[in-house]
Every structure is written in structure tokens, then in C-alpha cells.
Amino acid sequence: DIQMTQSPPSLSASVGDTVTITCRASQDIRSFLAWFQVQPGKAPKSLIYAASGFQIGVPSRFSGSGSGTDFTLTISSLQPEDFATYYCQQYDTYPWTFGQGTKVEVK
Amino acid sequence: QITLKESGPALVKPTQTLTLTCTVSGFSLSANGVGVGWIRQPPGKALEWLALVFWDDDKRFSPSLKSRLTITKDTSKERVVLTLANMDALDTATYYCARRAPTGDIDYWGQGTLVSVSS
């Protein structure tokens, strides 16, 4: 299985900050990388597909980059509704695998 | 508008078989390239992919759970059913269904349903 390693596991930030989350794959996954936002009691939200493509309705303050094994999710000008846990996921190879998550908390 | 909704028991006993239903709307389960998968999240832990059924009825399973899982779709009823046999306390989790887009990624998720395993 492809291992997905996210960092950091958690971070504290304030509204208006820019935050960056990284995700590393244990082998080349080309650009088959997605990012999701998970909040308690809500349906997970798909943010980014193909490493840098925007899902419908995702604000432009979210952006993704990378290819191969190293990927990044950046949230510019953090908003109150952005405090959540973020997961990366590879869909290059079955079984699909997720990172361990990064919790973005209020500083 | 694409929606997915999970339904099933909130509590199952150890060794029982869990049956979950995902009812979809806004798209067809037979649309080329589309799939519906199941993902779970134990309390305080990460997401874990379980299974996926494609528009052409091809299927993929998590190797670690393959022997316990089945996944079927009923296109006419717009439903996908997951069964997980021999439930254990470690299977306590929120179970989500999600749509695989023709581009291969997950684009829509259901709200999730919490399943607890206890005698």
C-alpha cells in the first residue's frame, strides 16, 4: 500500500493567517492527489483534486500544488469556517489511502 | 444537485454483520466513469477507505478487510449497499459513502452514519 504522510499533525493559527500543510507519498503517485476538509457533524468536503484542481464551489483561498511524491495545501487568509481537520488522499493506486490528518486549530 | 445519504443501524453486536445503504440522487449509478465508495473514520482517528463499486459493476476492496466486505449496487433504486461481516469493537466508526467522479477523484460525500459495536 502507498503510505501518505502529512505534516504537521496539528497547527494553531489566527483568522487572516496563511497556513501550509504538506503531504508526502511513499511512492510516485503522479498528480492523483486530493485534499478534503472534515468538520465534526458535517459531510466531508472535497477541496482539491489532481493535486491542484478546484472542486466546484471551493473558495480561491485554498490552493494545492505538487506532483510525484510531495504535495502542499495552502489556505490563504484563513477564515473562521476553515478551522477543521484536513486530509490528503492518493487515488493513483488501489487501495486508496489517506494521510493521518492535520488539525487546524484557533490560536 | 448531487447528494448521498447513508442509512443503517447505529448499534450492532460483536460477530454480527453490518449492512449500510447509500442512497444517491442527482446522478446515475450507471453513468460512465462514476463509482460509489465507502470510507470510515473511527473516533479520533484518520479516514480509511473500504470499498468501491464502479458504473460497470467492477469492484475494489481494501485488502485488509476484503474477506469481510461485500458491495453491491442497485441502479434502479439508486442505492449502494455495503456489508461488513463479523463486526468487532474496532469497527466502531462513522461510515461515509462518497461519489467517485469520472475524473477518478472523490467529489461528493454523504453526511456519514455512526455505527457502534457493543454487546
3D architecture notes:
- The complex is a heterodimer of chains A (107) and B (119).
- By secondary structure, chain A is an all-beta fold.
- Chain A is built from no helices and 11 strands.
- The N and C termini of chain A lie far apart (36 Å).
- The radius of gyration of chain B is 14 Å and the shape is globular.
- Chain B has no helices and 11 strands.
- The chains are: A mainly beta (107), B mainly beta (119).
Which shape of chain B, going by the Cα principal axes? Answer: globular
| Gyration radius over CA of chain B | 14 Å
Structural class of chain A: mainly beta
End-to-end Cα distance of chain B:
40 Å
Order of helices and strands of chain A: EEEEEEEEEEE
Total strands of chain A = 11
Mean model confidence by pLDDT of chain B: 97
Radius of gyration of chain A: 13 Å
List keywords for this structure.
heterodimer, A: mainly beta, 7-stranded mixed β-sheet, 4-stranded antiparallel β-sheet, 0% helix, 50% strand, globular, B: 119 residues, mainly beta
Short structural summary:
The complex is a heterodimer of chains A (107) and B (119). Chain A is built from no helices and eleven strands. Chain A has strands at 4-7, 10-13, 19-25, 33-38, 45-49, 53-54, 62-67, 70-75, 85-90, 97-98, 102-106.
Helix and strand topology:
The complex is a heterodimer of chains A (107) and B (119).
Chain A: E1 4-7, E2 10-13, E3 19-25, E4 33-38, E5 45-49, E6 53-54, E7 62-67, E8 70-75, E9 85-90, E10 97-98, E11 102-106
Parallel strand pairs in A: 2-11
Antiparallel strand pairs in A: 1-3, 3-8, 4-5, 4-9, 5-6, 7-8, 9-10, 9-11
Chain B: E1 3-7, E2 11-12, E3 18-25, E4 35-41, E5 48-54, E6 59-61, E7 69-74, E8 79-84, E9 93-100, E10 106-109, E11 113-117
Parallel strand pairs in B: 2-11
Antiparallel strand pairs in B: 1-3, 3-8, 4-5, 4-9, 5-6, 7-8, 9-10, 9-11
